[in-house]
Specification:
- By secondary structure, the protein is mostly helical.
- The protein is built from 12 helices and 2 strands.
- Strands 1-2 form a two-stranded antiparallel sheet.
- 22% of the residues are buried.
- The structure holds heme C.
Length: 322
Amino acid sequence: MAKKRFCLMDEIKKNPIALLGIAYPYFIAAVVVAGVYYITTIDAVYENKLAPYLPDSTLMKTAIDVKKPSVSEPVELDAWRGEPSAELTKLGEEEYAAVCQSCHGAEGEGDGAAGAGLDPAPRDFTAADGWTNGRTIVDLYTTLQEGVEGTGMIAYDYLDARAKVALVRYIQAEFMTDPPEISEEEIATLDAQYNLSQGDSVAGRIPVEVAAALVSEDRADVEALAAAALNAIENERAADPNAALFFDLFEDPERATLTLAKRQTWTDDYDEFVAALALAPETNGFGYEALATTEETSRAMWRYLSNIFANRKAALAANGSS
Ligand code: HEC
């Protein structure tokens, strides 16, 4: 009898479950390949998906208010004693929010966005250990007064004494778990060092934008005055020997008028005029020759230029205010 040839399709038709047995090794192989691929690429998959959160602290600006240089009001030493008053707490809270919170965080934990990239990180006020200067009122006040060198903690000595006292008390009361006791000795130390009860002098502060505007306004005034003066001298060149002398004597008339316009005091004071000539003769526009002239000539020059500048200044002021 003819031997029936083995045929896979016939076997499967007879017993469909056998298909599973044939497919199984392929299935296992596919799972292993997929698993290996997943494991070898998993890092790259995650790295690509998570964007780091790194705020650019240089873009965070808080405008400070304009403050005239002043002698700070005395702070009564009772501000250190007992619970801080409501008024002192409010001041501390406001100053903290305006000046410190960006780095030290709303809860004082050193996690403010502007401090994110700093090394060392801003101090976590709630931690008891790891302080550079320390947690007593003397330590804290000193930190504010002098900053911590080589860190993002700059000196805040420009704040007035009352604001600094308020900040120290606020940080201790609001953020520290077990603030150190305030001793009479510490109060006396601070008073002796910083004249708190007498009042101390405070440097003025203005925002950079305002300062830049003031400087450029000044410069525009100075340039306008210099140009007007030069123009006036030029116009008198033929008629007035002093005007002619000005152009003979001074190396760079344009620069010389600019130097004079920048300095305010020489018009009333001959010595100041001579000092202006002598200061940096290679760049001030007068040149060395002007220094070597006789006193008579230089006095005549001074009188002539004083007039010109005073007139031009008055004319510009009249124009500016009308
Ligand atoms: C630009 C970010 C920044 C700002 C704004 C800032 N600080 Fe700091 N501050 C720091 C850093 C950074 C340190 C950590 C210095 C260190 O490790 O000693 C620090 C540390 C301190 C310390 C602890 C010093 C010590 O003994 O360890 C005190 C207190 C403090 N700051 C108070 C203030 C107060 C109050 C203000 C607001 C007037 C303020 N800081 C504003 C960055 C800042």
